[in-house]
Amino acid sequence: MATRPSLEVPTLEQRPGFDRQPSDLTHKDDDKHIRHPEDGVNADADHERPSAPSTLHEKDKAEEIEKARGVAKIEALYLVFGKGLKLWILWGAIALVAFTYGLSQMTTYYYTPFATSAFGEHTIVGTIGTITAIMAGVSKPFIAKLADLFSRPFALAVAVLCYTLGYIIVASAQNVNSVVGGQVIYTLGNTGIDFVSSILLADITSLQWRGLVNGLYAIPYIPFAFIAGYIADGINAYSADGWRWGFGMFCIIVPCTIIPAILILFWADYRAKKVGALSLASSTYAREAALSGQTERRTVLQMLIKYAREIDAIGLLLIGFAFGCLLTPFTLYTTAKGGYTNPSLIALLVVGGVLFIATCVWEFRYASHPIMPLRIWNKTFICCVGIDFMYYFSGYFVDAYWSSWLYVVKDYTDKEYTYVLNILTVGLTLFAIVGGLIQRYTHKYKYLQCVGISIRIIGCAVGYYGPAHNNSNAVIVTSRTLISVGGGISVISSQVAAQGSVPHTDMALAMAILSLWTSIGGSIATAIASSVWNRRVPEALTKYVGDQFNATEIAEIFGSINVARVTEPRDLIIKAYNEAATPLFLASLVTSFVSLIFALLTTNFYLGEKHNTIEDFDIKMRSQDETAPEVVAARAREAEEKAAAKLAAQGELHH
Q1: 141 with 527: CB under 8 angstroms?
Q2: Cα–Cα nearest to 454, from 349, 596, 330, 573
Q3: Using 50, 70 and 90 to split pLDDT, how confident is the model at 13?
């Protein structure tokens, strides 16, 4: 990302979405302002900043009123729930989402190689990984825009719908194309559930607690790591059709367990609107009350165009298709006639390059609401993007085919196989909690993250040692454990630092951009790994067992990890897969050092009771007396009266 000129941080009134009236909702009365964080936020001007006070009758007044709707609604939540039973119900609903999502992730992720192998198309795993990684990255800015423009529960409901539909398609697939299509739709839903949950947690926690709370949200992964093995064994998930049950059961479980959280959050929105809490959370809502009946009504088509602009639909489509066209050929060239000289692959690469250039031009020149606005690119955020981009880039060199490689070279039972695969997830979760605790009591993150990345590098080195030395259980377990220890600490630190470096209105978008670039890093590495795997494995098989099997039989071995695992001579098959995988382990080790360089450049700002380092914005829940409906309603009327008076004064000044 090119360096951008640093501009003076604008005042509160100058920044879009930050013209809310002071209240004791979450901000300090009378001295609410944007502060310079220690690393100096790059607050570049962008298209959305108003250049002068707008009047009552300007055409874009309705657009200004609707800015950051989801942010205002979630801030109003403090006045709806307060302290007491309702708050515990909210946390309980979020915990239920965490448990359901954790169980889903700990089982279904590992079924894809068996779903593709059932149709003799295991080689397409890399293509699926690339496409879904791009989809996961591109979908997050879209979800963030939905959450900000409409509300958090609306975005969560859309995600659950896509999740369910996608898994229905996968579970009922009759060919590999259905598996791929279902995975793409499911990825939008799966990503949405996880991302909206992360936004909710960041909305309602201060910097000092955020790392720990995010770590605790993932704690269901630990018990499910052990339960998942029994589930996979019980439904015979690694058999020809058992994987269908593995996907299909979550089509019922996920909607039933997440709907309570959606209903509670929608109730909170309704309650906040009814008692007037929205006018206290944002002056845009106070103005909306004052302007009721005076804003210009739009047709359905105009509304669709408006929301398409605010979501930046063109930008999302351009970047998704650009990376899809650029990376997919790397996963398909071994099965395409003529390899990279195939006209279709050449066309994809050319179109991808053109679309990437078009994406840059659109985002930085023409987009009215860009998915990557200049204002959020401060030094710390840039470094966080660099850390996580290289974290995923180095990790997916190995992880793209690690489960397939492990299944072939080790004679684990289904239960043991699942346990070993889950070492990384359990470690990431456990040490994210440890990292969050350290952040809570040291109020710092930088040096902790540097230590974590260093431990991960050691883990990558141990992993590289494995394929060349018979893949002992000690080497495999030690490598995955060290990678998980370092990764858990690093990821939680990047999340807290990125969220803390931007104001609340930009937080969801900053989280989405961080995830977008990490997904791009992972998808690039997956595409490269797929290219290496699809070329080297058949070559190695031909080298070691080519005198015993013809080309068709070698293709069959390569096309299914189930076939590869039972093919004799076993020792030569293992040797072939180890030799093919070794360059991927080496690439992972070498590139993992880059994250450490970025980590050393971040600013070690203080993690305190503020929501972020930009605003004077405390996170605290009020007592039930302070959140009583009549008290909130009285304060809301006062805020709306002040807003009306302010608008009237602006109108007179204009005339």
Answers
A1: no
A2: 596
A3: very low
